[in-house]
Amino acid sequence: MSHSDPNCIFCKIAKGEIPSRKVYEDDDVFAFHDINPWAPIHFLLIPKQHLISMAHVDESHAPLLGRMMALVPKLAQQEGCRPYPDGGFRLVTNTGADGGQEVRHLHFHVIGGPRPWLKG
Ligand code: AMP
Ligand code: ZN
Question: Domain extents for the chain?
């Protein structure tokens, strides 16, 4: 697995080569607002390395994915998702064509805010 794909839009966003509305960044992870939000709050959490999808995940990725999962509730709260259980959020990861994945760089959608939503 290569660390960065020069043709990948999310690799370019993680490197700041394509502008985005940043939510969070550290050495391994980047989060930014979805350009086409389904709900009042909709951001994407991605690994900086070019990991294609959940179908490409193995044991070696467990620490990275564990860190990303631990970030989800923190970032959801930071971005304004109301507290559990009345608030909360939806966490979605599309994988492959049947899974509805459009961008081939692993991303977790974090979607929330008061309903109704446009989608989801
Ligand atoms: P998926 O269908 O799960 O692959 O989702 C891809 C998501 O990336 C969609 O919700 C798009 O709106 C979003 N997206 C595509 N290009 C950009 C971009 N340049 N900045 C922010 N979000 C994007
Ligand atoms: Zn990529």
Answer: 9-119
C-alpha of 48 from chain center: 11
- The ligand placed nearest to the CA atom of residue 92 is 1
User: Could you say which of 50, 105, 107, 109 is catalytic?
Assistant: 107
Q: pTM above 0.70?
A: yes
Q: Is 49 in contact with 17 (CB distance < 8 Å)? A: no
Q: What is the pLDDT of residue 109?
A: 98
Q: Is 61 a catalytic residue?
A: no
Dihedrals phi, psi of 59, to nearest 5 degrees: -55, -30
Domain 9-119, CATH:
3.30.428.10
How far CA 14 is from CA of 1, 27, 31, 34, in Å, comes to 17, 10, 8, 13
Q: For the chain, list residues with pLDDT below 50.
A: 1
